[in-house]
Amino acid sequence: MTLTRLDVVPDREVRVRAPGKVNLSLRVGPRRRDGYHPLSTVFQAVSVHEDVVATPSTDFRLTVSGPQSELVPTDGTNLAVRAARALAARAGIDEGVHLHLHKGVPVAGGMAGGSADAAAALVACDALWHTGLSRDDLLELAADLGSDVPFSLTGHTAVGSGRGDLLTPVLARGEFHWAFAVQDRGLSTAAVYARFDELAGDDARDPDPQDDLALMQALLAGDATALGAALHNDLQPAALTLDPALAEPLEVAEDAGALGAVVSGSGPTVAALARSRQHALVLAAAFTAAGVADAVLTAVGPVAGTRVVSGADQAG
Ligand SMILES: C[C@](O)(CO)[C@H](O)COP(=O)(O)OP(=O)(O)OC[C@H]1O[C@@H](n2ccc(N)nc2=O)[C@H](O)[C@@H]1O
Ligand SMILES: Nc1ncnc2c1ncn2[C@@H]1O[C@H](COP(=O)(O)OP(=O)(O)OP(=O)(O)O)[C@@H](O)[C@H]1O
């Protein structure tokens, strides 16, 4: 018997896209007893993406492609695999999944690439398995996986409090254009927070959201110049002492007319705010010409959070 095209049932497959982030402001308080730091942060999701494909499998399998993919663990420690397993356990699902990650977000770069993969795995497996869990259930699972994972789910622009996992949406008008100086060498988030503790000593104070009033007004007005002036990162001095060469992309961005430049999250990626899409390309070219980045990216923000791109209909 020969099979016609119609006889072939395509494998179930769900495709999901999740954004990276930049912290427009990151204010850090003294280390809590549980080891985490209280934050007041303003996240913006940017158009640098992780693309994840989920297909049914008897076990939990992971493959990775894209820039720096050799730096990503493919065993059970991968945040995407941990997310899929946690969802299966929570929903009582007795199936595995093959996750393929195509990485667009720099690895260990302070732009929440692993968190985006975890959020993508939650959304993809939820669609594949029709778990029936609510959005709040997914957000709870997300927070258990990592402080940045809830924001990867929700996207757009939001204030993060608690350890960064409690989100309040922020009204932002217009689009902002970014250039990113990416490094091959990563920085460990835990090490940057530990250096923050050393530098702050007894002077660390609980973060005050009022300190970001000018930033909030800039977002509301869609005023890129005011936003550039308001960018702030309490972890930047710590990242700079661990990786002093990061002063160079910050200086290059300023010389090339960036409206503001800041280390993204725990670094080492440097984010430079541009006047326009064209100016973002100029800033990226300046990073390359000065030899201060291993790779450059341009992006706009804010963009949507983790979403199904295709495949939800035939899944389940
Ligand atoms: C630097 C940021 O990216 C800013 O958004 C985040 O705070 C980091 O979020 P993340 O990578 O999802 O971090 P997690 O996986 O939750 O924690 C990794 C490590 O970072 C430190 N950590 C993280 C978040 C937080 N509020 N305080 C901390 O001290 C802790 O040492 C923790 O063991
Ligand atoms: N899916 C994943 N993608 C990348 N790294 C992962 C993943 N899962 C686990 N890891 C491990 O986590 C480390 C941090 O990776 P990630 O790219 O999430 O850092 P980051 O963007 O600096 O995180 P954040 O901005 O949330 O602090 C990597 O060095 C790697 O060993």
TrEMBL record:
First-level EC class: transferase
Pathway: Isoprenoid biosynthesis; isopentenyl diphosphate biosynthesis via DXP pathway; isopentenyl diphosphate from 1-deoxy-D-xylulose 5-phosphate: step 3/6
Domain GHMP kinase C-terminal, residue spans: 215-291
Hydrolase recorded as keyword: no
GO biological process: one example: terpenoid biosynthetic process
Catalyses which reaction(s): 4-CDP-2-C-methyl-D-erythritol + ATP = 4-CDP-2-C-methyl-D-erythritol 2-phosphate + ADP + H(+)
Domain named GHMP kinase N-terminal: residues: 78-155
SUPFAM superfamilies assigned to the protein according to its UniProt record, in alphabetical order: GHMP Kinase, C-terminal domain, Ribosomal protein S5 domain 2-like
Annotated binding of ATP, by residue: 106-116
A Pfam family assignment: GHMP_kinases_N
Keywords for the protein's UniProt record, in alphabetical order: ATP-binding, Isoprene biosynthesis, Kinase, Nucleotide-binding, Transferase
GO molecular function: 4-(cytidine 5'-diphospho)-2-C-methyl-D-erythritol kinase activity; ATP binding
Recorded family membership: Belongs to the GHMP kinase family. IspE subfamily.
Function of the molecule: Catalyzes the phosphorylation of the position 2 hydroxy group of 4-diphosphocytidyl-2C-methyl-D-erythritol.
Protein name: 4-diphosphocytidyl-2-C-methyl-D-erythritol kinase
Organism: Cellulomonas soli
